[in-house]
Design a protein that fits this description.
This protein has helices at 4-22, 53-78. It is mostly helical.
Length: 81
């Protein structure tokens, strides 16, 4: 039972970092911007995510894994000898 926190934390950190590092925020096409547009359309950038939802989820899982590792360290340091 004592080693469960270590194993669970290590697995969650590994999976979370793998998901966060393997997913990309998406392909954003900025296009050519050095000329005046030939139409009267107003171009807006819209919402551009810097990180994807998969990256956020992966980082959240990694944080939960770090909390589990910290719990394991706390149990290890706090137990009576």
């Amino acid at each position: 039972m004592r080693h469960l926190w270590w194993v669970l934390g290590a697995v969650l950190v590994g999976v979370g970092l793998a998901v966060a590092l393997s997913s990309s925020p998406g392909q954003t096409d900025y296009g050519w911007f050095a000329y005046a547009p030939s139409t009267d359309d107003i171009l807006s950038g819209g919402s551009v995510w810097v990180v994807s939802r998969a990256q956020v989820a992966g980082l959240a899982v990694a944080v939960v894994g770090l909390v589990a590792l910290a719990t394991g360290v706390g149990f290890r340091l706090g137990r009576r000898r």
